[in-house]
Amino acid sequence: MVIKVFLASSSGSTAIKKKQQDVLGFLEALKVDYAPLDIACNEDNRMWMRENVPVEKKPTNGIPLPPQIFNEESYCGDYETFFDAKEDNAVYAFLGLPPPPGSKEAKEAYLLENGPVENGTIVNGTDDAEDEENLEAEEENIDDDTLKAPVKEEEAQEEVEDEEAKGEDDQPVSEEEEAPEQEEEDE
C-alpha cells in the first residue's frame, strides 16, 4: 500500500508549505512509503484529490487545501487530522497501516487489546497457559520504561517537593528582614 500525499509545489501560503513539510518529514522519519502528488502542476491530481475528499471533510467553499492524505484510494485526512493522530501516537492507525513491531503505537495497541501487565501477568485478562506463552513472547517487545513510568513520575514529584522545601530554608535573608527578627529576640 502506498500513501498518497497531495501537495502544492508552488503554494503562495507559508502555512500550507509548513504543513506539507511537517507531514512529509514525519512520514520520512517513520520510513513510511509515500508518493507526493503535486496538484499545482498536474490538473489530473488536483481533480482526483477534490473528487475523493469526502463531502463532510471539505471546507465550506468546497475546495480542500493541501496536504490531503490517502492510503491508495482510501481517504485518511487532512493536516489537522494527521496532526491529531501524531499527537495521540496513532499515525499508523490514521494511515491504515499496521504499526511496526516494537513501536510505541504497537505497544499501546497490545496493552489496549490485552490489558496492563503487572509482574509478568495480564491484569483483567485470562490466565490460561496459551495467554501466558503469548505474554512471555510479547514481554520481550514491551519496553520496561512503559511499566515503570508511574513510579518515575512519583519520584520526580517527591524530588520537586524536596527541592522546594530546601529552597525555603536556604533563602538568603536581607538585613531589613534580619533586623525585626533580632528586635523580637531582644524583647
Question: Could you please describe the fold and organization of this structure?
Answer:
With 187 residues, the protein is of the alpha+beta class. It is 53% helix and 12% strand. It has eight helices and six strands. The strands form two sheets. A four-stranded mixed beta sheet has the order 2-1-3-4, sandwiched between helices. A two-stranded antiparallel ribbon has the order 5-6. The chain starts with a strand and ends with a helix.
Q: How far is it from the N-terminal to the C-terminal residue, by CA?
A: 86 Å
Mean pLDDT: 78
Detail the poorly predicted runs.
Answer: 125-129, 145-151
Give the % helix. Answer: 40-55%
Tally of alpha and pi helices: 8
Q: How many distinct beta strands? A: 6
| Rg measurement, Å | 27 Å
Shape: elongated
What profile does the largest beta sheet have?
4 strands, mixed
**Structural class, please?**
alpha+beta
The secondary-structure element order is EHEHEEHHHEEHHH
Strand order of the largest sheet: 2-1-3-4
Q: How much strand content do the residues show?
A: 5-15%
